[in-house]
Hints:
The chain has one domain (2-95). It is built from two helices and four strands; from the N terminus they run H-E-E-H-E-E. It has helices at 2-26, 53-57; strands at 31-37, 41-51, 63-75, 80-95. A four-stranded antiparallel beta sheet has the order 1-2-3-4. A hairpin with a 4-residue loop joins strand 3 (63-75) and strand 4. The longest helix has 25 residues, at 2-26.
Amino acid sequence: MLEEKQQLKMRSKGIAKAVEFMKEILGKEGSVVKANKTDEGWEVEVEVIEQSEYMKKIGIPKSVYDKNIYRVILDQNFEMVSYERKSQKPSGGSVE
């Protein structure tokens, strides 16, 4: 029972660290969609809604948003090792 509580506490810390990192790097809030403990640390996937850079570049007058999934890798001490955008898909939303 105690070990389960420690695991939950560690998972919460890893999740919070990944979300904090994404907010710091991208300046946007994200939602955790997956978190796994690995032998090296933690792998956390964070979904972030961002304005579509492609639509912005081609001059679409409305703001169109994408759902981007980022993978954040943390070591055993919850320090960021790497991050990458894993996937991107249109969210179907726009703002006039």
